[in-house]
Design a protein that fits this description.
Blueprint (H helix, E strand, L loop, with lengths): L1 H16 L1 H24 L11 E6 L4 E2 L6 E2 L1 H11 L4 E5 L2 H10 L4 E5 L3 H6 L8
Parallel strand pairs: 1-4, 1-5
Antiparallel strand pairs: 2-3
Helix pairs in contact: 1-2
């Protein structure tokens, strides 16, 4: 341990006598700090500016009614309601699938989420042996 401390002290003394050594050491200390600072500042709040992104949502789900329990389940409506409450993006609920896709192609919407007709029925297959 004494040798390590002796070597460290000698290195510090040698670096402090040389201007070029001081510049290199300070560069090795400052550049990674700046790099980390800019990266952290750049990704600190990734959803801070996404509130203006328009995303089209089309729900074509027809729902599902079980044979055992006569209760209709519509998972597509639940998903749409949850997305409406989400303020991270500007969710635009549409009724026409083609209009949503054309809106993405034209640049009116950033993306489109299309919930298929059999979404609820497919979700209920989770409890069966033939999962879709």
């Amino acid at each position: 341990m004494k040798n390590i401390l002796h070597l460290f002290k000698r290195d510090v003394q040698n670096v402090s006598r040389s201007v070029i050594g001081l510049v290199v050491v300070m560069g090795l200390i400052i550049v990674p700090c700046l790099y980390a600072w800019f990266n952290i500042a750049g990704s600190w709040d990734p959803y801070g500016n996404t509130g203006n992104l328009k995303i089209a949502v089309v729900n074509t789900d027809e729902g599902y009614e079980s044979d055992l329990i006569p209760v209709e389940v519509n998972v597509g409506e639940n998903v749409t309601a949850t997305l409406r409450g989400n303020e991270n993006f500007d969710w635009v609920v549409l009724n026409d699938r083609e209009k949503a896709i054309e809106g993405v192609k034209s640049g009116a919407y950033y993306a489109a989420v299309v919930i298929p007709k059999t979404f609820s029925a497919d979700m209920m297959t989770l409890f069966s042996t033939d999962v879709k």
